[in-house]
What does this fold into?
Amino acid sequence: MDVDRHKISFAPWWPTGRRPVEAALWLFLLILPLAVGLAWGPHFDDTDYATFRCARHLAAGNDLIDCLVPESPVFRAPLYVLVLSLSAALGFPIPQAALALGVIGWSLASVAIYILGRTIRRPVMAVVSATLVAFSPLIVITLGTEIPWAIAWILLAFAAAIRGEWKLLAGILILLLLTHFDVSTLMPALLLLTFQRIKQRKFPLWLCLILMLAISGWGVMVARQLVAPFSMSHLAEWGGDIEQLARESEFYWLFLPFITLGLLEVAARARWMGLLWVMILILRDSDVAGVMLGVLALFLAGLGIEWFVEWFREQNKFRLDRRTLTLVLALVAWLPLGVAQLSSLLTDYPRRPVARSELEQQVGTWLHAHSDPTEAVFGSERIGYLADRPTLPWDGGRSDQAELARLLQTLNRNPPAYCVSLRSLGWDLLTRTDWFQEYYAPLQTFESPHDATSPFVVWGYHAGRFEMGEYRPLDARLPDGVKLVGYRYWPDRIQPGDVVYVSLYLQAMDPVTDKFHTVVRMISPWSGERWAQQDMVAPPVSSLVDWWQRGQPIAQRFVLTTPTDISVGAHQLEMRAAAPQLSEFLPIYQGDDTSPVDQITLGYVVVPWQGEMDSARTVGANLGDQITLLGFTAPDIVSPGSAFDVTLYWEARRPPDDDYIVFVHLMDANGHLITNHDGSPMNGQYPTGAWIPGDIVPDIHHLALDPQSPTGTYQIQIGMYRWPGLDHLIIVDESGVEVSDRVVLHSILVR
It folds into this structure.
């Protein structure tokens, strides 16, 4: 950059009346990005909507504190946010204003690269690179951001530096740093200051002061970027983008030789080494850096085409005039590069997230209508912006357990009122966690067959069942400092083949180091036959051990599917703790008891009897105001030595206080016991402690007579008592008066 502006005359910054062709070119460069941007439409990402949100807050004058955090767009792009906020204050929708600013910025960038090419006396490069930039795919990926303006200011700053117009350079650098401030824009500014120092032997004091003030104003953000370890990981992402472009059009390979020629042209002239320096400095994980490298590639491609034109013109065999030959050769070299970029735009156009934008619009409208302005939303920035609600942004892309654990910690400290999930691996993992299922319920679903991320589900927060007390408390110590503090199960009445849901509420009292299994199973209380069983790792895998806070209840949910041949009666739910691979059961301690148990009974699930009492004789006896004997069936005549059944039909008036034993006695006229059968109802299949009011319990008792039994008339007497205390349930009449401890049921003739 050893140009002496006193010896070299430069073309003016803007076209004059004597240059109608240049004026037409400028008009073309201004209109083409506008056409591309408007055709593409306002399809922005979450980062853009974070900027829009900040601009809306500034325009409304509320929530300004949220805009003053170091990560805020106000510190990254203060001038851009200010312009957006002014447009909102004037009544223009911010997304549409951002679209307009973006395309105007690219129009300015295409003109700026043309000005830079004319300044360095490369007219072919100026036209070719400017037109390539004017409809580059870079336009559509930066709409809604301040990046096009930052690129334009950088290009204009280099043109001003080459021209030696230092005051203009100072103004452009100030605009650059106010438009986008990070290392990628600070380094070109320092580079140009260094160039001015070389040219004028001194630094411009007032410009340096302005830059120092800017650095001090955003020092926190810059310091974080400067001290961040240099990483080349983003280069792999850029490499993937280049590979994708090559798949979209083979013509992109033609960029490579022209870029190589452009690099050779740069390397041949020491004054261009500054451009390489800029390229090296901006090799950082930055949006501006990536886009600037793309523009630099187009700049170098233009230089390569100019070198090719100059070489071919020297070898001219066609005897064409210089202007015609230059135009033909430039067009021949430019055409495949332009076709490559056009093919990318046409290929990506159908991929625009139009359907997703419509879904997010529907979700935002629904949330705005069904939520309070202060209720927070956990989801995409776009949905939060459209709903005009405080937003905890998450795109659902992170899926590793460490990130998910940190996310759960954030949500647990201050749960948002609403979550909006979409189809992604991260959201799938989050919504499957026990914590999420305990505290969130789906409210509304929005679907579209044209979007791969559909459906969008709005989840509403509610107090967990544990906090609401919708559980049965328990105090049981499991292995490794884990307590079972409560449980719940539902339903308590099922049909064969139905599903039973069980939730265990576990609490970590100490740091959890080892895993064990919790086992929930459904068994017959009398025979021990197992009808269903499920085991889970404790701590729950879906709760993420790294996140499980001490004292935080975690719900383990079990789904027990019963077989279609499950018997009628009450089936016992029990919980056990087992070693890994279920090799052995581990001890459980209840309360302060130092004696371990190997299981805890949670309750009963009932399969009710579905039969009829058509042949039963009505009784209606009231036992202890807890149980009603509805009726019975029994034979009228039996023979000595024979066996017969007495079937009793019970119904609970309310949940019985205890598990009672039923007695059926056959008594002679003198009150002597001839034969009897005592036992739990339904032979232990349906203990009274599990009876549900409204269910009829058929209870069969088998009695056998001795062959030597004398003939005569005998009475069947029935009742209930506790075991082992033998306290009888007293029979009461309709007025509640206690009558007897048994019911004289029936007379049987033995002959």
